[in-house]
Amino acid sequence: MNIFSNIGITELLFILLLALLVVGPERLPELARKLGKMLRDLRQAYDNLTRDLGPELMSLQQTTQELRRSVESVRSIPQDMVQSVIKAADLEETVQELKEVRGDIGQVKQTLAEAGQAVQDPLKAAIDTIQEAGSVPPATPAEEEPQSPDTSLTEQTDE
After folding, report:
1. pLDDT tens, 45-83?
2. 1 Cβ contact list (under 8 Å, min separation 6)
3. Treating both helix axes as pointing N-terminal to C-terminal, what angle do 92-120 and 28-88 enclose, rounded to 10 degrees?
4. Are 140 and 147 within 8 A, CB to CB?
5. Are residues 147 and 123 in contact, defined by beta-carbon separation less than 8 angstroms?
6. 78-to-74, 95, 99, 138 alpha-carbon distances in Å
7. Among 8-17, 60-69, 79-88, 149-158, where is mean pLDDT lowest?
8. Residue 136 carries which DSSP code?
9. How far apart are CA 66 and CA 62, in angstroms?
10. Is the separation of the CB atoms in 148 and 123 below 8 Å?
């Protein structure tokens, strides 16, 4: 523990000059002795603490490291167990099949969404299907407007 490690010679001279001006030349030697004794006592107390508490701190650090290692090993147990169960039960193929089924379910969901759209707006769905087939040019906005139910009934009865 070096208190003066960051103080240069110019800073030290400045502090001594300032102390001489504030305290005065008569009391400065007495104040320096008291400051020296206080620093010596502080260093001795620090050394005693590190000597007395050093082994306990080291054992505490070792215990902390052991606990961290234990926690990490406990965290890895579920992942290791899952992998060992999959390998032991030869479930890798089953897991792969389940992933494929999940993909198939996504496709069915998309198809159902398209069918729901077709049920809600059958005319637009029919136009979209024909356009995808490429047999009819894209419809103009006037052609896309659905006819009212009354006019469609009268047209059907005329034919």
Report:
1. 988 888 888 888 888 888 888 888 888 887 777 777 777
2. 43, 46
3. 90
4. no
5. no
6. 8, 17, 21, 57
7. 149-158
8. S
9. 6
10. no
What are the structure tokens assigned to 61, written together? Answer: 């650090």
Residue that has been written with the tokens 């899952």 in this structure: 82
Q: How many other C-beta atoms lie within 10 A of the C-beta of residue 86?
A: 13
Residue with tokens 């059907």: 156
User: Cα(136)–Cα(144) distance, rounded to whole angstroms?
Assistant: 13
Pair of tokens at residue 41: 């006592």
Q: Which residue bears the tokens 């030869």?
A: 90
* Amino acid (one-letter) located at 108: V
Please give the Cα distance from 91 to 81 (Å, whole number): 13
Q: Which helix (H) or strand (E) holds 36?
A: helix 28-88
Look up residue 127 and give its amino acid: I
- Distance CA(42)–CA(44), nearest Å, equals 5
For residue 62 the two structure tokens come to: 């070792």
- Does residue 159 surpass a pLDDT of 50? no
Percent of the chain with pLDDT over 90: 7
22 burial via Cβ count (<10 Å: 0-12, 13-18, 19+): exposed
Tokens of 68: 């961290």
